[in-house]
Amino acid sequence: MSKDWIENKDGYVVTNGFSNNSLHDREQNDYYATEPKAVRLLLEIEEFDKQKQIWECACRQGHLSNEMISLGYNVYSSDKIDRSFGHVEDFLTSSKTSYNGNIITNPPYKFANEFIVKSLSILEKDSKLALFLPIRYLKGKQRRKIFEKYPPKTIYVSSSRIKCAINGEFNEMKGSAVSYAWFIWQKGFVGNTTLKWFN
């Protein structure tokens, strides 16, 4: 019998047979660490000015931050939850009204819309926002409204699976059942979204 797609009580799609996608509720604080290669691959295909700071505003335990730092980027790391890495700061309630840098993160999925609106409200013109999200984020009436108001400049779909591990426990994963993409916004961009592939 094939593995069937189902949804848990919060409406998140999961599939049987993968240890990182269970029938239990999602991790309480939506802590799904991103495999560091995801941001390394992004920085190979999308240019981010190294003279500008990058804000990793949902840094968890620093998987993406450390990778960007190793590549020579100036990274400010923060998270709402204290996980012994970065600054303890709730991005969505941050008092910052302007940020002269770029933002790269894998946001808590349930707050992705809010991360987009907040980011684009504080970024300065031509600065970039890169969010690592499941491809299924493209669907839904509310998300369509977000895309119509704030069109991404580019969406990079990962051709191969990239892992996002619950509580950062990559060693516990047997595989990944979810397809991801990098969604790139540039403040002030007007036009049609370009779709590309990587990995």
Mean pLDDT: 84
Residues in helix, %: 10-25%
Strand order, largest beta sheet:
6-5-4-7-8-11-9-12
What overall geometry do the principal axes of the alpha carbons give? globular
User: What's the total count of β strands?
Assistant: 12
The oligomeric status of these chains comes to single chain
Radius of gyration (CA) equals 16 Å
Outline the structure in words.
- The protein has 199 residues and is α/β, with parallel strands linked by helices.
- Helix content is 19%, strand content 25%.
- The protein has four helices and twelve strands.
- It has helices at residues 37-45, 63-70, 112-122, 141-149, and strands at 5-7, 13-15, 32-34, 54-56, 75-79, 87-88, 102-105, 128-134, 154-158, 164-166, 180-186, 194-198.
- The strands form three sheets. The protein has an eight-stranded mixed β-sheet, sandwiched between helices.
- Residues 1-27 have low confidence and may be disordered.
